[in-house]
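Database export, one record per block. Field names are fixed; values are copied verbatim from the stored entry.
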Amino acid sequence: MKKFIILALFSCMTLATRSNPLPVVDLSSINGTLVLCVLTSDPWAGVEYGSLLGDRLYDVLENYVVNTAFGGAASYNYARQIFDERFVVSEYYTEFAMHIIEGMGYSGFPVYSPTLGRDFTYQDILLANAIPDMTAFGLTQTTGPGCSDLMSWGEATANDPQLNGGMVICRNLDWDDDPLLIENALITVWFSDDFNGRIVTFGFVGMIGALSGMNDDGIATFQNMGNYNSTPVGTGFYPVNLAQRDGLEHADYNGDGIRSPRDVTDAVRSHPMAATFIINTIGPANLEFPAEILEIHNSFGDTLRTDVHNPEFFGDNLASTNHFRLLKNPSYCARYNRISDSIQTSTDFTIARNWRVSQTAGVSSNLQTIQFIPATKLLRFSMARPGTPAYQIEPTEVFMDGLPVSILEHPAKQQALFTVAPNPCRSHTKLTIAAATGDRITIEISDANGNSIYSHHDVAKADGDYNVSWKTDDHPTGVYLSKVVVANNKTRKYVTDVQKILVLK
């Protein structure tokens, strides 16, 4: 009978693990650019986000967000007051940001801001994600992302054997050419239970929205700042990059039965916006409207611009910079004119020409240039280096399916990271972990329902075995999951392992 009980407990544990997956986050890099993989939509993944990126995030918050973007404590504190009183953020992003702060603390990273005279909180992370929205209040030292985008499809790409009429978009992200932003460029791969797939976002450490992003259905969205700013009136504002991610990540956001650019557009339009934006969104070329540009203003509404509003010579191409062209009469823009002149020379585009023409709109503060082909999910991107804008750098090519290597294939997972003995146990057991001096060690033990019942955080003081005892006196017979994460502070790499512990009373 006891054997049957034990087998049943292990069977239940397997099912519970599948329905309540432990958050898993991995950090790697491609050609020097950080790539973060978040393998679950559970906001608890924020703990590992903070554990892996806490030192970089602290640097970005303290030295860029507070002191550069907002220019110091006085302006920042006023911005925080406005954000707390007039913005709303969904429960998921709020919880994720809370757990990021927890992860920073668990791993020993600083959270105290000398400039502000207090600890950073989750609201500071959310405010950092709303910098484009806060530009409308006149408190930031930056006007937010500049940016230019060029979309080509249909007849415009029919003569390219690689595209064969398919969609291609190239995007220049222009912002402050601050060394902190350049050093902390981040590609994040988010796996969503709701979408049953992944989205990829390009941004910086601490950003959890979709300033630039694409999903497995070939939908991509990119945010530009607009012109004609007005002081925001009212409350209930929602950060625009979070709205864009909502549209990418939720299956059929607007419920029309089609995965299309309109899902992102409607996600943005479903919330009051504090500032003025130009949202470029594309999808596969076979859609009725495979590309559209949302021009949205905080006081006089919004409109959609598609190829039907193009000059006749544009053909199947759309372009945008930072100026309304439909909601208000167009303003002069040298970057837009350079793209327009190239299209007038020829409406035919290859992948290479789409990139080259986008380069004509490049500026010195160009931090990221990103190209996406939905049909093959090919990504080509360049990241700025100190003194060299992104558009002048040869792009890296990678397919979404290969971005990044699965954690399950991580070479460090070939052998057990720790041992548990005795196991089964009655009153106590010991976890023995292989560690090196300075490694950050995190232990989390959960019950069969996925509830955390024990946690431990420390830094290894010497090479060799690191031992932790777990007393089980207060825990009933059952199977428990023990998860251990060992992070190396110098290499920014970490390994993780999960093992079962059987408690018998």
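Remark 1: Confidence is low (pLDDT under 50) at residues 1-23, 405-414.
Remark 2: The longest helix spans residues 45-69.
End of record.
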